[in-house]
From TrEMBL:
Belongs to the 4-toluene sulfonate uptake permease (TSUP) (TC 2.A.102) family. Its main location: membrane. The keyword Membrane applies. It comes from the Bacteria. InterPro entries: TM_pro_TauE-like, TSUP. This is Probable membrane transporter protein. It holds the Pfam family TauE. It is a multi-pass membrane protein. It comes from Pseudonocardia parietis.
Length: 254
């Protein structure tokens, strides 16, 4: 366990958690604030990664609470994607614990950047692909597979998970972005629940840091979800794109 005895370290982590929760709710990618913050106060990469993943859980719950008005009518979509998210995140957790760090360094930045670009060209891709057939509002098969793959990434690292998920949902689900943003929160809770259960048993989670970060990510997630509901859809989309690209570049530079 890291000694967080310096006042600046405590304040630094509290502020990082608050901002991360809000950014996760608005666009995704806020966990990339907490991960380098943990590194900055002395955590080794693996401990920072798993501690970050566990600490994000309350923030995702806050997102769902703040965006709960956008969830009615999505029951069938929620069930299917939640099952895929649970299975995928379990596989991602297992990969994190057995694969070398070099795999992480090579794959994660590319995934984040590709997801952000997919979000940027999402409307154009939808025009090329065409609208879903009558009676099938979502491309359900592709949506389930894509969420499963995205959740493997979420279990493996989780940084910018929201960017990956919202890009996936925007491409394969036929609905307003605000409603898909609320679903992103639900799926993030599912992924975080699985990672918390696995990492609590088999990974070096620093529970003192989790205790500091969890309340602020919860508050930030709730406030951020309320802000996201009031943002124009185009603004929300480009906020996701720009933040995702920034996160991807930051990962390459680490």
């Amino acid at each position: 366990m890291i000694d967080l005895s310096q006042p600046w370290e405590l304040v630094f982590l509290l502020v990082a958690g608050l901002l991360a929760g809000a950014i996760n709710a608005v666009a995704g990618g806020g966990s990339l604030l907490v991960f380098p913050a943990l590194l900055a106060v002395g955590f080794p990469p693996l401990a920072a990664n798993v501690t970050n993943s566990v600490a994000q859980w309350p923030g995702y719950v806050g997102i769902v609470l703040g965006a709960r008005r956008e969830l009615p009518g999505q029951g069938r979509r929620i069930v299917g994607t939640a099952i895929a998210a649970a299975l995928g995140s379990g596989i991602g957790c297992a990969l994190l614990l057995v694969l070398p760090a070099a795999v992480f360094d090579a794959v994660v930045p590319a995934l984040v950047i590709l997801a952000s670009l997919a979000m940027a060209v999402g409307p154009m891709l939808k025009r090329v692909i065409g609208d879903p057939e009558d009676g099938q509002r979502d491309r359900t098969g592709a949506l389930i597979v894509a969420v499963f793959v995205a959740s493997i990434y979420g279990g493996y690292f989780g940084g910018a998970l929201g960017v990956v998920l919202i890009s996936t949902l925007a491409l394969f689900a036929h609905d307003e972005l605000r409603r898909l943003n609320a679903l992103k929160g639900v799926l993030s809770v599912v992924v975080a629940t699985v990672t918390t259960a696995v990492f609590a048993v088999g990974a070096p989670v620093d529970w003192l840091a989790v205790a500091l970060l969890a309340p602020t990510t919860l508050i930030g997630g709730y406030v951020g979800a309320l802000l996201a509901r009031r943002m124009p859809e185009k603004l929300l989309r480009w906020a996701v794109v720009l933040l995702g690209l920034a996160v991807g570049v930051a990962l390459y530079l680490q």
